[in-house]
Amino acid sequence: MPVLIKAPVLLNEQVGPGIFLMKVHAPAVTAECKPGQFVHVRTTSERDPLLRRPFSIYRKEKDAGNLQLLYEIRGKGTSLMAGIRAGENLDLMGPLGRGWNLDRKPGTVIVIGGGMGTASLLALVEEFCSRKGFKIRAFLGFREKKLVIGAEIFARAGAEVTIATDDGSCGYRGPITDLLPRSVRGTGPFYIYACGPQAMLRRVAEFCELEGIVGEVSLDHRMACGTGACLGCSCRVKKKDSWTYSRTCVEGPVFTTSEVLWDG
Ligand SMILES: Cc1cc2nc3c(=O)[nH]c(=O)nc-3n(C[C@H](O)[C@H](O)[C@H](O)COP(=O)(O)OP(=O)(O)OC[C@H]3O[C@@H](n4cnc5c(N)ncnc54)[C@H](O)[C@@H]3O)c2cc1C
Ligand code: FES
After folding, report:
1. What is the C-alpha to C-alpha distance for residues 166 and 174, in angstroms, rounded to an integer?
2. What CATH topology corresponds to 108-256?
3. pTM attached to this predicted model
4. Quick one: which of 94, 104, 153, 166 has the most CB atoms within 10 Å?
5. Which ligand 2 atom is nearest residue 228's CA?
């Protein structure tokens, strides 16, 4: 059950260019949340912006009841959020949405993250690394070297990490999805989870279709209510021979690669 709380902020520090890590004490959320779910945050007690902003649950420290969010300054809401100090409260609602499918037999877990999309994948990696019989590979793509965030945390959790940057300043030069075919073939049963820009997710979905497997993608849609009431976050999904709208905040943000209809 989602809760609406004022969570004490324990830490809110810059970890990269315009990128912040916030830690809040929210035991009621950490007790319930699953990898891939999100929290909906009021970034200010003033009127503007009025709407909450969604952030993936980056990491949970279940025993301590703490929750970590990794976020990038994009506009007014996230700028205000970056100004919140330790000791203040964060008004948040969560956990919300449908997270990643964790019901898997031992095999290879492949996570593909683009930019801040990686924030949705660390908790998933930590979950599978804590289980027996799973090999975890993380393919993380960024625009440039200075924006590479969290790679060592994924590695410390137990994932084999491969990096790509658009300009080649770190790791492979080009889209991280270029590396999928040669990395995946011949490794036996595998599961694909991806979060990042739409173009990347679309390529992941095409790859899954080619390989005859069903992967999972987390969609980054703008949200308003976050609870299924306003329909503002609707995306198109396949339904039998036709299609229908689905609410990213309730039926998602995680969808299977076979159900999403990619626009354009
Ligand atoms: C389920 C979910 C989980 C998310 N998790 C994270 C996370 O862990 N870390 C993180 O940094 N961000 C995450 N985001 C994106 C984050 O919610 C937005 O960056 C934030 O709402 C921007 O608020 P703002 O007021 O700063 O910017 P605004 O002033 O609202 O917008 C600034 C610019 O960013 C664009 N923008 C805003 N929201 C989105 C969006 N959702 N998708 C694409 N473009 C957008 C706007 O069109 C505009 O150009 C997530 C989004 C969703 C839907
Ligand atoms: S944001 Fe309102 S229905 Fe999803």
Report:
1. 5
2. Rossmann fold (3.40.50)
3. 0.96
4. 94
5. 3
How far apart CA 148 and CA 159 sit, in angstroms, is 16
Phi, psi of 135 (to 5 degrees): -105, 130
What is the Cα–Cα distance from 102 to 91, expressed in whole angstroms?
29
Residue 148 CA to ligand 2 centre (angstroms) = 31
253: CA distance to ligand 2 center in Å? 11
Question: For the domain 3-96, what is the CATH code?
Answer: 2.40.30.10
- Name all residues whose Cβ lies below 6 A of ligand 1: 38, 49, 53-56, 70-72, 74-78, 116, 119, 220-223, 253
Atom of ligand 1 nearest to the CA of 252: 1
DSSP conformation class of 105: -
23 has which bridge partners? 11, 68
Q: Which residues line ligand 2 at a C-beta cut-off of 6 Å?
A: 223-226, 228-233, 247, 249
How many CB atoms are closer than 10 A to CB 66?
A: 20
| Per-residue pLDDT tens digits for 30-85 | 999 999 999 999 999 899 999 999 999 999 998 999 999 999 999 999 999 999 99
Smallest-distance ligand from the CA of 234: 2
Dist CA 61 CA 78 (whole Å): 23
Residue span(s) of the chain under CATH 2.40.30.10 come to 3-96
The torsion region of residue 241 among left (phi > 0), alpha (psi -120 to 50) and beta comes to alpha
Burial class for 224, CB neighbours closer than 10 Å (0-12, 13-18, 19+): middle
Q: Mind listing the pLDDT tens digit for each residue in 204-223?
A: 999 999 988 899 999 999 99
Write out the residue limits of the CATH 3.40.50.80 domain(s) in the chain. Answer: 108-256
